[in-house]
Amino acid sequence: MSSFARTLSLAALLSLTQAHGVILNAQGLRGSPASVAFGVNPELARNCTAINPCQQDTGIIRDAEIAANIVNECGRTELTGNIDIGENTENAIAAGAVTQVKSGTQMTVTIHQVNADGAGPYICDLIEAGNNGVISQNLTVENNVPGVNGFSQAKTQDFDIRVNMPEDFKCTGGSSGKICTVRCRNNAQAGPFGGCFPVEQVDIEPNVNTPANIETKLSLDGVFKQVANDVADLPAAVAAIQEAGSDQAKQNAAIVSSLLKQTVTSAPAPVLTPSVILGGNPTTAVTATATATASSADAAQPTETSNGGDNGNGRGGNGGFGNGFGNGFGNGFGGKFGSGRGNFGNKKRAEVFVA
Ligand SMILES: *[C@@H]1O[C@H](CO)[C@@H](O)[C@H](O)[C@H]1NC(C)=O
Ligand SMILES: *[C@@H]1O[C@H](CO)[C@@H](O)[C@H](O)[C@H]1NC(C)=O
C-alpha cells in the first residue's frame, strides 16, 4: 500500500462518525455570478456517501470549536481544516464568483445532502463585516431541506432552499468593501453541517476601512479565554505544523491538489496609502467632512469650504500627503503624489495604483 493510500485510510478511520450536507451553489440577483461555499471543491464526486471522498468538503461548524478558537465562524472541512474566511472571500472576488444581492433579495441556495444527517432544517445567518466574527443578523429560510434534527433518509440529493436577505443590512467586508458572509448549517448532532458563502451587496456604497472605524470588540473575559485556549493548544499546533511541513505531507497535499484540480485565480492588489491629517488637533481631524485647499505636507488642517462633493483637491508637496477626505472619512485617498488627485466626494473610492 502506498503511503498516500495509508494516509487516506487513517483519515477515514479517524472521521468515521461524520456525515454531511454541502452548499454547492448560491444564486442571488438574476444574472449575477453564483457563489460556492468556502472549501467546497467542484471536482469532488457527489454520487457517493463515503467519508472519502464524498464528505471531505462539507463544512462542520460547531459553536464549541468557534468559542475555543479552533476554527472561525465558518468552521472547517475534513480536507482542509479551518476555513479562512478572508482568504476564501478574496479568492472568490478574484475569480468573479460572488453572487450579488440587494435589500430583500431572495437567494436560491443549493444544498447537497450527502447522507442521512446532512438533512434539514438549515438555519442561516449573516456576518455583515465579512470576517470580523460578528454574526449580526439571522436570515429567514423558506422551502427548507426536509428533516428533523438534521436527519432524514435522503442521500446524494440536491435541495434548493430560499434564503432571504434582510430589508436592512450593510455589507462592509472584503477588499471591495461590500461583501457579507452568509452562513447556513443544520442541527445534526455530528455536525452542525453546512457552509458559508460570500455575497456582494450592490445597493450601497462600498465601505472603506480606517483603523478607527473598526467597531468589533471582544470582552476582556473573551480575550483572556482566547489567550488561555491558544496557550493550551500551542504545543499540539506547533507539532502539527511541523508534521504538515514534512516532505511526505507536502507530497500528499500535492497529490490531493492535483486530483482535485485545485486552482486559485490571482489578481494583483492595488497599493493604497490613505492620506492622514498631520499636525492638526484630533477633534478637527475626526470631524472633517470635506477638503479644499491643503497645499502641502505640512498644511495639515482641512479648510471646510467644499460642499462634500467632488473636489478632494489634495496636493502633496514633495511626495507628502494631501488631504483628500471626501464625505466623511474613508473615502478620500490620494494626494499622495506630486499633483494629487481629487474626485472622491460622494463616497467614490479613489483608486491609487502604484505599480
Ligand atoms: C460518480 O461521479 C464521478 C465524478 O464525479 C464519476 O467519475 C463516476 O463515474 C460516478 N460514478 C457513478 C457510479 O456514477
Ligand atoms: C438568531 O436567533 C437565535 C435563536 O432565536 C438567537 O439566539 C440569536 O440571538 C439570533 N441572532 C441574532 C444576531 O439576532
- In the predicted model, the low-confidence regions spanning at least 5 consecutive residues are 1-17, 284-355
Average predicted confidence as pLDDT: 79
Strand content: 15-25%
Shape: globular
Number of helices: 6
Unique bound compounds:
2-acetamido-2-deoxy-beta-D-glucopyranose
CATH topology tier name of the domain at 21-201? Immunoglobulin-like
What is the count of β-strands? 11
Radius of gyration: 24 Å
The proportion of residues forming helix, as a percent range, comes to 10-25%
- Sequence of secondary-structure elements: HEEHEEHEEEEEEEHHH
CATH architecture of the domain at 21-201: Sandwich
Q: State the CATH class of the domain at 21-201.
A: Mainly Beta
User: What characterizes the major β-sheet?
Assistant: 9 strands, mixed
Signal peptide: 1-19
Organism: Monosporascus ibericus
Protein name: GEgh 16 protein
Biased composition (Gly residues): 309-320
